[in-house]
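**User:**
My hope is that you can spare some time for a protein that puzzles me. This is the protein in question:
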Amino acid sequence: VFIATWLSYVGFYFCRKPWSAAKSEIGKEMHWNATTLANIGAAYLIAYAIGQYLASQTGPRLGPRRNVLIGMGLSIMVSIVMGFGNNPWIMASLVFVNGIAQATGWSGNVGTMAGWFHKHERGRVMGIWSTNFTIGSVLSGLAMGWILGRYHWSACFFAGAWILGAIWIQFYFLQ
């Protein structure tokens, strides 16, 4: 459970980072100005905030495992479609949906961890477990930079979806 949830949260970053890594190249290719790019990024942040609330409501009904699986699955699908994006309104909509999906990660995984570890060991376990967001951010940033340096910006979205898809499979079987 520890490994499955830890990898899950690391994996979420691989579908979270492509937009921030590729937006400059997207802007150049699509001739979108800085305001358009910033508004698309803001769509993600607004959706993530809304998604945190929604995840807290749906999580207890669906259960943390199902909530995380749905969030990862939705993020994978949206990331694939984002790799084909060529319209700012469509891209903003997809980024928004991704923000909602991404918001299931923390609450669902923390909820799972709370159920598997006793109160007296949670501080130590969660201290180690919460390294996932730093490691996920660093690894996905490095990967997106490497991909962007060698391929078209769309490959960031496809690679992120592929990596989170592999993690979705392990989560499904191990969590």
In short: The first helix runs from residue 2 to 30. The chain has a mean pLDDT of 94. The CA atoms of residues 35 and 41 lie 10 Å apart.
